[in-house]
Design brief:
Helix content is about 45%, strand content about 15%. By secondary structure, it is an alpha+beta fold. The strands form four sheets. A three-stranded antiparallel beta sheet has the order 1-2-3, covered by helices on one side.
Amino acid sequence: MSKRRRAQGEGTIFQLPNGKWRAELDLGWVDGKRRRKTATRSTHRECAQWLTEAKRAKEAGGLVSRTPTVAEWFDTYLSEVAAGRVRSSTLSNYRRDFERHIRPGLGRHRLDALRPEHISRFYATKLHAGLSAYSLRYLHAQIRRALAVAVTWGLVARNVAVSVQPPSLPHKEVSPLTVEEARQLLAAARGDRMEARWIIGLSLGLRQSEVLGLWWEDIDLDAATLRVRRQLTRARVAGEKMSFGPLKSARSMRVLPLPAPLVAALREHQQRQRQERNALGETWADPRLVFTSTIGSPVDHRNDTRAFKALLIAANVRCEEVAAPDGSARLVPKVRLHDLRHTAATLLLAQGVPARVLMELLGHSQIGITMNIYSHVMPTQLVQAADAMKNVLWDEGQ
């Protein structure tokens, strides 16, 4: 039986004298010249996989005969790849960082001419200009992912970002409230319209977006449980519209037991909200939401942060006097809203709650994240472990 001849546009795979394999895809005639894309791989299977992806990209219009610049490729990557994989708020962050940093810093380079030293110098320049190491590592992750797709599509032979080390993150100690400060804050919140919101932050350690994304159907007051299933996000496009989206990771979905004082606060909050809804009638925006504005709409993240700062001032917790332009003094809080989460974690660890349990409560994806963030509390647990071992192995008094 004669071997079937490949149809035009199917592509071909053949072995090179050095033992490697090469895939080739015909892109047709462009500007009077026949254009082809090729990729060299170690195995026939890898070439076949590349050819399948390349043909798919060609059909979608993503594979071009001319190697694009970094800027052109990022435009394609964000529109045709990232847009289908990430949340709208995350995509808007990618686009913002691309326009602010990547396009002016690396965009002029042709994709296949991009070198590790270009990226390394880009990081050094940004670091010198004041961009934080954290932000640069976030940029590095975006560049690495985009170039990985470019390799898969056959636009470049290797991902040069893999050869570049982003700046190291400086060790940052968390700044949780003490037990006394936490109690001061709760005392100041007593009777506040959002009292239950602050108790959730201190006792459960939910992220801000998780608290603001709670629906009443997520809370079972009789069973004293709370289910974390979504978050409230604010996209930096289309007028910064707020929307409900998936959680940070699969581990972030969790069911948490509620302490009795929180159940009582939530019942009071539910009753207060019912009265507000009855007063406004049909103009109440969203009856599902646990925490809302005075008209029933989602609470903007910035308004939530402002309310927290006002609460800190009312409680006089870690506030410093700062001179105002008119010569008067005003109190400025020195605690971040996210420190409520750190406070909950630190207090639980101090009470002997194992790090593995804390990881589940906080919704961390890996135990290493929990250990790294809260390593400053671990020495206390290590002393407790040593005392426990002493009691097991030695008689009292030895």
